[in-house]
Amino acid sequence: MVRGGGNRTGDEERRARRDQMSSWGRPLARWLPALLIVGGVLFDVVTPPQYTAAPFLSAAPLVAAPLYSLRATAGTALAAVVTEVLLATYHGAEDYYQSATEAVTVVVVALMALGINRVVRRSDARLASVRDVSEAAQRAVLPTPPDTLAGLAVAARYVGARAGARIGGDLHAVQDTPHGVRMIVGDVRGKGLEAVEAAVVVVGAFREAAEQETTLEAVASRLERAIEREGGRRTGLDQDEGFTTAVLAEVPAGNQSVLRILNRGHPSPLLLTPDGGLRELPPSAAALPLGLGDVAGWPDHADETFFPAGALLMLFTDGVTEARDRAGRFYDPCARLRGSQFSGPGDLLDVVVEDVARHTRGGPADDMALLAVQRPLEA
């Protein structure tokens, strides 16, 4: 069971502990090449002459290659070669050919380490550049929402997949409208720039429709038409297979105790109460994702439920529920969050993101978009 922090200080403490744990491993790894050289010398000195330190000395520059700069890797390689020559001199020339073979082995491996270092550094630079562009594009598509809207506390998070720097089509948006606070979380089929283009269309259509349409059903219809129109106009988007799973939610103006949900093939939102209770909000009738109106037609229907004072509503994409651990078990937010208490929507989303990272031992294999709103406690 996950426990939420009592205030924002709890978030800072969790991040500090995580940074501290990761900071312990980095110095140990960076000292490993030196430890291999020192350990090789000790091994060579205390063991019989037929045993050699060459494996230790060869491993040192290889370990340094992905960790160090080119200059530091070259220094490690030079130290390994010089150490091998000094050890050969120390033992004398009883077996010249063996000593020469060991020295040549260390030299060859050292040169390989320099080549590996160059490849790793160039790959890191390219990946960092792509990630910077991806993050900039994602921020442009999904700007950070304000902390409060019409009295509701709001928070959003976007976590990119660990598998690479490709931009995903996960999206979230929330805004205060004449009809209440309306929000959407969705997942566009596909990856890359085509998915981002589709996400831009969905978010743009939502922001316009949320202001103009009087019902969530009408908002969903506008999104449906926008996706179909965009699919017919863009050759990069497959009109027959392009779709977006989405969940729309609304807290009506003047009545924050009411919550309306319209789900189009998306993971069900969660409602968390201040006493640690948790309730899933599945749709009363299943519906296909947005963009598949030609496959089947049906009247959209928004389900209405009670929104208790102090309760948290969390919407999220399937990057959360499809995150797997090493045994292949899916992440279950209901089981992990039930019984927990949170100080606000930001605390809730931080806990979920960190818990998914622990579950997967590093991060999700798919992008995650999360949005949470909290109704204030009544005075």
Based on the coordinates given, report the CATH architecture of the largest domain: 4-Layer Sandwich
User: Which structural class do you get from the secondary structure elements?
Assistant: alpha+beta
Number of structurally distinct domains: 2
Radius of gyration computed on alpha carbons: 28 Å
The whole-number mean of residue pLDDT values reads 83
End-to-end separation: 30 Å
Q: Which strand order do you get reading across the main beta sheet? A: 1-2-11-10-7-8
Question: What is the helical fraction, as a range of percent?
Answer: 40-55%
Brief write-up:
It comes from Streptomyces lunalinharesii. The protein is an alpha+beta fold.
Write the layout of secondary structure elements.
Elements: H1 8-46, H2 54-67, H3 70-91, H4 96-141, E1 148-149, E2 152-159, E3 168-177, E4 180-191, H5 192-212, H6 216-233, E5 244-252, E6 258-264, E7 270-272, E8 278-280, E9 303-306, E10 312-316, H7 318-321, H8 333-337, H9 345-360, E11 368-374
Antiparallel strand pairs: 1-2, 2-11, 3-4, 4-5, 5-6, 6-9, 7-8, 7-10, 10-11
Helix pairs in contact: 1-2, 1-3, 2-3, 2-4, 3-4, 5-6
Walkthrough of the structure:
The protein contains 9 helices and 11 strands. The protein is of the alpha+beta class and about 375 residues long. The strands form 2 sheets. The chain has a 6-stranded antiparallel beta sheet with strand order 1-2-11-10-7-8. α2 packs antiparallel against α3, α3 packs antiparallel against α4 and α5 runs antiparallel to α6. About 5% of the residues have low confidence. Keywords: Hydrolase. This is PP2C family protein-serine/threonine phosphatase.
